[in-house]
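Appendix B, record 7
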Amino acid sequence: MLVDGYNVIHAWGLDVANLEDARHTLLHVLDDYAGFSGENITVVFDAYNKKTAGIEEKQGLVTVVYTEHGVTADTYIQRTVKQSKRRLKVVTADYLEQLSVFEAGAIRITPGELKLYINAARNKHAGHLHRSSLSGDDLKARLMLDSIIDQD
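Structure tokens (predicted):
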């Protein structure tokens, strides 16, 4: 699954006043979902306007890609879908990106649909969630996850 990171952050209404916190929250939510679902997740963030080389790193179960200078997340995702021998899932609310990845054979998932999948996975595994044993950043991330999923 390829996730257009900033697109989902905006679609979910995460606080973009501090993008680092918004990215952190999104990555926690997706790491949690990857643990429940077994889904292979890559989140792509634009570094389009920054003079940096592309970076790929692992954060928990999620692969995080910061695109290189001059490359948008849309371009990276479209290129990855076209080069893949597998049928990938792409999470985005961007209509033009949806059309492009459909043409390349990918499955489009909206940010709202992703919330539904996350909620279903969490409900299926609800017995494994023990908030009382969490503390610090883990508890904060769990509470943020709850508030994001319960918004609709």
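Remarks on this record: The longest helix spans residues 19-37. The chain has a mean pLDDT of 84.
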